[in-house]
Every structure is written in structure tokens, then in C-alpha cells.
């Protein structure tokens, strides 16, 4: 049977690993979005969506990184919510791109949309759990 201190260390290691996995996933998503946007056809609409999509995806990753250094649980929750909002924005942007004839020759759009959807789901669950834990602590 494990002693209490071993359980805490193992839990911390698992949470640290999960944090790292999510951060890496966000970074990979941001890089994939940047690469995706760099192949957009040139034009006013393409430039708009390229800017919007790249800013939203990169912002989600950066805010998640900022959350890791949060000064309080409330600050951590706030930064996670910002990441979630940015991921939702990226998801809607990808849905529009994938339905638009302007971007019909783009590849990987549906794959990126699926990843954005999965990331949104992860962040929704994380924010809900965090908010629930914060309520029970009061």
C-alpha cells in the first residue's frame, strides 16, 4: 500500500504530464493552423480569415501557458476560460472555411476542425470541473 506522500507525488506527476500534453497539443494545433493559413489563396477574405484563425489558435496556446503561472485559482480559471473562448473562435472560423467555396482546395481543414472540437471539449470539461471544485471549497 502506498503512503500518503507517494500518492501526492504520483498525482502531481500525472497532472504535470497532462498539463504538458495539453500544452503540446495546443502548440501543435497552432503550428498546424499557421501552416494551413500560409497556403490560403491571396485576397481580402483569405487574409481576414488567416489573421483571425491564426490569432485565435495562437492566443489559446499562449493563454494556457499563462494559466500555468496563475497567481490564484480564480486567475487560473479566468485564463482557461480565455483559452476556451479563443478555441471556440478558431472552431467557428474553421467551420466557415470548410464550408466556403473560396477555400475549397484547402487540405487538412476538416482534420483541424476535428482537433479544435476536441480541444474545446477538453477545455469545457476542465473549466466545469475547476468551477465545481472552487464552489465546494467555499
Task: Explain the overall architecture.
The protein has 138 residues and is an all-alpha fold. The chain has a single domain, classed as 23S rRNA-intervening sequence (de novo design (two linked rop proteins)). The protein is built from 4 helices and no strands. Helix 3 runs antiparallel to helix 4. The protein starts with a helix and ends with a helix. The N terminus is likely disordered.
Give the CATH class.
Mainly Alpha
Structural category? mainly alpha
CATH fold-level label: de novo design (two linked rop proteins)
Question: Mean of the pLDDT scores?
Answer: 86
Strand count: 0
What is the subunit arrangement here?
A: single chain
Shape: elongated
Draw up the topology in text.
Elements: H1 4-38, H2 44-67, H3 73-99, H4 109-137
Helix pairs in contact: 1-2, 1-4, 2-3, 3-4
TL;DR of this structure?
83% of the residues lie in helices and 0% in strands. It has 138 residues and is mainly alpha-helical.
What brief labels describe this structure?
138 residues, 0% strand, de novo design (two linked rop proteins), mainly alpha
